[in-house]
Amino acid sequence: MPKNFGDDEQRAHDPSAHEQRMDSESTVQRNPHPDFGKVQASRPDWKTDREFKFAKTKDPNWKLGQGGNDGGESLKKEHVEIDPYAEGRPAIFNYKLLISGIIPRPIGFVSTRSKDGQSTNLAPFSYTQVINHDPPVFIVGFAGGFDNAKDSLRNLIDTNECVINIISEHIIEAANATSINAPYGISEWSISGLHPAPCTTVKASRVKESVFSIEAKLMETKEFESRATPGKKTGVLAIIEGTRFWVREDAINKDRNIIDPAILRPMSRLGGITYGRTTEGLELPRPDFNEATKPEEVKPLIKPKAEGQ
Fold first, then answer.
1. Residue 135: cis peptide before it, omega within 30 degrees of 0
2. Fewer CB near the last or first residue (10 Å), C or N of the chain?
3. pLDDT in tens, 190-211
4. How many CB atoms are located within 10 Å of the residue 238 CB?
């Protein structure tokens, strides 16, 4: 397992990396507004009465072979090709492109505890996804390598434990506050005002206010090296197994296998400093090949795969 450094050791080992980790926002510049308070004040108030509801699809009469539901408008648009390693293209451009194009992204609100139990960390990560259910497996991506590990990653690889909490509307401001660039050892719990709750299989705390939390243990990690700057470590993928689920009792069904989105009201990440609400859904049954291809008008669509498809 790679060695981890405390703040003093990190600064001595790699001063520039330490400062980048503590002040990455000044480098990334996600916030496009010189005066965000003024911009915020000009926007409409939060709609508290916006309940989760289901709507029809854009084209309820869509048929196999029809293609897009925009009447072919998207076919009239041209695309630009982007080489992520083009000469003169900063790596940060790829970051901004990806977080604005791969949306919405679920947010893993990860809580960890140091090996000696003296320090905890709570932070949101939008490079998060569930990838398997038996066993329950999740991935979380961390910026920077092991030699410049964020506090959450440092605790995770030291203890092999964490809790992944889901962020809902009622804790969005508090959750965002935990992304502050606080020095190692400063409590994000206190800064956010959120409350820790005990877990069963891990020592890290879950967020009491979260509707859904997952106790988890580290399975393995994978460190990534920059293509543009060989030798520079740019990220770590953590593969994590869920060991216990916690769901608020008013959000789970009788069989304890479905969470109500109207209660969960999850928040997602978009590009820059933008978050998204989930207030509307649509349902589409997965088609059955034998049933869907019975009509005579569909049979001409049943062809072998052709080159270029």
1. yes
2. C
3. 999 999 999 999 999 999 999 9
4. 25
Chain centroid to Cα 162, Å, comes to 16
Rounded Cα distance between 301 and 309, Å, is 14
228: tokens are: 């543009």
Task: Please write the tens of the pLDDT for every residue from 17-63.
Answer: 333 444 466 667 788 888 888 988 998 999 998 999 999 999 999 99
Strand 161-166 and strand 212-225: the pairing is antiparallel
What pLDDT digit, counting tens, does each position of 89-139 carry? Answer: 999 999 999 999 999 999 999 999 999 999 999 999 999 999 999 999 999
The dihedral through the CA atoms of 161, 166, 171, 173 has a sign that is: positive
Distances (CA, A) of 112 to 8, 109, 185, 216: 21, 10, 12, 10
| Contact residues for 63 (Cβ-Cβ < 8 A; gap 6+) | 298
- At position 218, the amino acid (one-letter code) is L
d(CA 164, CA 242) in angstroms, rounded, equals 9
Pairing of strands 105-106, 267-269: antiparallel
End-to-end Cα, the chain, rounded Å: 44
pLDDT at 143 over 50: yes
Q: How far is CA 90 from CA 148, 197, 242, 264, 285, in A?
A: 20, 42, 36, 38, 43
Q: Are 49 and 279 in contact (CB under 8 A)?
A: no
Q: Are strands 280-281 and 53-54 parallel, antiparallel or unpaired?
A: parallel
Residue with tokens 């506050």: 177
pTM of structure: 0.88
The answer to whether 154 and 245 are in contact (CB under 8 A) is: no
pLDDT of residue 24: 63
Q: Which residue has the tokens 């038996």?
A: 134
d(CA 224, CA 146) in angstroms, rounded, equals 10
Amino acid identity of residue 224, one-letter, is F
Q: CB neighbours (10 Å) of residue 68?
A: 12
